[in-house]
Amino acid sequence: MIKLLCFLLFNAYVVNNAVGSVIEVGGFKSYVSGSPHAEHAVILVSDILGYKVPNLRAIADKVASAGYYVVVPDFFNEDIYNPNNTRRPLNKWMESHPTEQGVKDAKAVIRALRKRGFSSIGVAGFCWGGKVAAILSSTANIQAVVLCHPTFVTLTDIKDVEVPIAILGAELDTVCPKELVKQYKKVLLTKPQIKNYVKIFRGVDHGWTTVYDLNDKKAVKAAEKSHMEILDWFNKSLK
Ligand SMILES: *[C@@H]1O[C@H](CO)[C@@H](O)[C@H](O)[C@H]1NC(C)=O
Ligand SMILES: *[C@@H]1O[C@H](CO)[C@@H](O)[C@H](O)[C@H]1NC(C)=O
């Protein structure tokens, strides 16, 4: 995973064709894309690399082009995880940025969007953001969630889910192993009243929806497929 993170930090930042802009939403600097007059809004909760990652912003633009107002908040105040900083390993960084804080912060963004009159709100979370999205699904006024290779999500979190949920896992993921994703599915099967979609993508690793080499055709294809699934879930659950 660290290797992948480094790769992203040092190589993937060079491409940036983003069409949105950075404004404040609910007290957080956010990348926004799409019409503010759209009927539905989508919040993307980033992984530990934060809201500037071009591949994440590209997902925002994609979802926006399907008719949503998309918000990618900066919940880290630009203090993203730096794999180079050996004095601040991931667990130390997490002490400054617990997912509980992410949930609290996301609720402020949700309230702000509610005030603006969006008729429904969806949340997609990536890794760290996957945990935030999972908790929001039972504690906030939102209508759908997508968890992409989530981290720290417990079976209890899944048991508590109250809105349509899609979970995208990766076959080679060791952070969120496919066995765990299968257990999520089992829990969801006990909740027939909650629409769910659980898929394990073949041949890909943790983070594949956002951390990929733009020159690797296979990786790009897998990532694009996952983006379509995210969009499909919001189309089915929010509209
Ligand atoms: C991390 O280390 C690499 C290799 O030493 C260096 O090229 C890069 O600029 C550093 N990146 C950050 C974010 O500090
Ligand atoms: C989602 O809906 C938009 C607008 O109706 C449509 O253009 C897009 O193809 C749909 N995407 C998927 C993956 O269902």
UniProtKB/TrEMBL annotation:
Entries under Gene3D superfamilies matching the protein: alpha/beta hydrolase
InterPro entries, A to Z: AB_hydrolase_fold, Dienelactn_hydro
Domain Dienelactone hydrolase, residue spans: 29-236
GO molecular function: hydrolase activity
Keywords: Hydrolase, Signal
Cleavable signal peptide: 1-20
Annotated PANTHER family: DIENELACTONE HYDROLASE, PROTEIN AIM2
Name of the protein in its database record: Hydrolase
Organism phylogeny: Eukaryota, Viridiplantae, Streptophyta, Embryophyta, Tracheophyta
